[in-house]
Amino acid sequence: MGKNRSTPYLLNLPSLFLLGLFFIGLSWLLLISFKASSPSGALQTGWTLKQYFRFFGDQFYLKYLWPSFHVAAFSTLVTLLLGYPTAYILVRSTPLMRRFLTIALLIQFFSSYVMRIYSVMLVLGNNGIINRFFTWSSLTSGPIKLMYNEFGVAVGLTLGAMPFMVFTIASVLESMDTTLESAAKSLGANEFKTFLEVTLPLSLPGIAAGIVIVFLYNMSAYVTPALLGAGHFDMISNFIYEQALELMNFPFAGAGAFSMLVLTLILVFFLNQAFERMIKGVSFK
Amino acid sequence: MRDQWIKKLGLGVFVMGWIIGLLGTTAFGQQKEITVMTWGGVWGDSFRTNVIEPFMKKTGIKVNIVTQITNRDGLTKLMAQKDNPQIDVWTADDATHALAAERGILAPLSEATVPNLKFSNHKGTEFSAVWYTFIPGIYYRTDKVPFELKTWEDLWDGRLKGKLAAPEVVYTSARFMVIVSLISGGNEKNMDPCFAKLAALKPNIAMFYRTDAESIKFLESGEATVCAMGLLPNVYKLLEKDSPYRFVVPAKPQLIIYNNMALIKGRDSKLGSELINYMLSTEAQEGHCSTIGLIPVNKNAKIPEKLKNIVPAKWENLYTINLDVVNQDIGKWTERFNKEIKGL
């Protein structure tokens, strides 16, 4: 019975089709960003770099990029700091605890994203749990502003991205050879040293994948800044939405979207390079 | 034996599914069907109950509803399907319909195909018939605001510091911007006074909203106590006796917003015209308008009783906005608003 060589390709046809559609959309976005449009949204003939000059030439539009990178990076870091211990407990705890944590994360993962953000608003709002506690305990004279700013958006992003980080790191920790940890301990290393010199370096691939996934997820966030930023803290996706869907200025939205895509890809490329070097360093030790 | 039984059952299910599918595309496929794009929330609920369900019952025409988040969101969807439109009837405000007519995606309407147009107080344009009208005003929480708001200028009162939810420029096609311009000596053609006046409002602004749902959500959650400019239907059901919510229409300037109906070019306009005609009927107008607080345009339809206490009896300071100017400049105003007022 000879193997049919075309089978893998045939099986991949649906995903290739989806990829094709994605690239068509992306190409259209790129092409349209070199056009000009009238106030009614009609595309004008000819090609121009006007949209890119406008985007990079005006400090105001760059202000959408920097806070987007800043808040995405910050919440990725917080997600890592909170997600790693969660993943560690998830993998190393008792079956009951493991089940409880998995269910808790899955509920969060599968619940409506908008509802999740609304739940954050119930906690961070003027009448939310935190502000009520602060006011009740006289820690503050009145409610403090915990949302409609960068902080609120960062909290929302962290909450939304947590399952991605936890499950990515957990899958690496799960497949890790635990005899290496036992060997380190038998050679006199304490728990902390074992973790720092064996577990952590060996889980670097999971950390790297988690960081990249969560950072990309955060960079493209729209709903979180729309609800928790409420116009006071907009990210690049809010700018793209406003230009494309509200002002019908698709060329300018395209320039913004493509600029974000290219800058993000460059950043992710360097991140991957750095992680690869770190992971190789661990293997050669 | 068991395997054979399962195979037979599977074959039976397959054949039944095939027959049902076939019937769906042939016999049931004959059913007349149209698609209408409109808003969701309280607007959509009332539309479905007071207009669509009776219409389907009366005519046997099936109506599918597609929800748009904002007027401009609807326009974007229609532009994307311009060569192969999937929508028959579209509801949006007058300014967005004007933009759509300019882009050539609307089909003309006439009294010949929409006879109820002859009963309308406000006819609209060749491509866009007025469905109903309403007045923007201020809504606020009387239990949280220490004074009674009466004029647009009251929004600048120092006691409202950090208490105000303000609309983004695109909300209701920049009506709030025009109001601010008018009270500060400008108009839609001269927006400099508007921006100077809005800059002074910044300390009072707690957040910005771009949808109807957001405008009321901020008040309900207590994040804001005053909605700088909102639409009566969003708060209409909350205006019961002893309610802490109040809707006020300041005396000057007063604006009317028209929400209109349009047929989409490239679709069979006969069924769409039938729906539009029904939307203009006395029965549909009274039902929809009395449920969410709108002013009907059909001369024979009664204005909801509750509305008489809220809207002014006389329109003495009514201002008509030049929609061409709004559509031409809304992009510039948004950019300036983001830079000078939101200060991103």
List keywords for this structure.
heterodimer, A: 285 residues, mainly alpha, 76% helix, B: 344 residues, alpha/beta, five-stranded mixed β-sheet
In words, what does this structure look like?
The complex is a heterodimer of chains A (285) and B (344). Chain A has one domain (49-281): Orthogonal Bundle (MetI-like fold). Helices cover 76% and strands 0% of the residues of chain A. Chain A is built from 14 helices and no strands. In chain A, α3 crosses α14 (250-284), α4 (59-92) packs antiparallel against α11 (204-219) and α6 (113-124) packs across α8. Chain A is globular and about 75 Å long. Helices cover 41% and strands 19% of the residues of chain B. In chain B, the strands form three sheets. In chain B, strands 1, 2, 3, 4, 5, 12 and 13 form a seven-stranded mixed beta sheet that branches. The radius of gyration of chain B is 23 Å and the shape is globular. Classes of the chains: A mainly alpha (285), B alpha/beta (344). Chain A binds chain B through residues 39-42, 60, 63-64, 67, 121, 125-127, 148, 230-234, 242, 244-249, and chain B through 70, 72-73, 75-76, 79, 99, 102-103, 168, 170, 206-210, 214, 218, 221-223, 327-331, 334-335, 338-339, 342, 344.
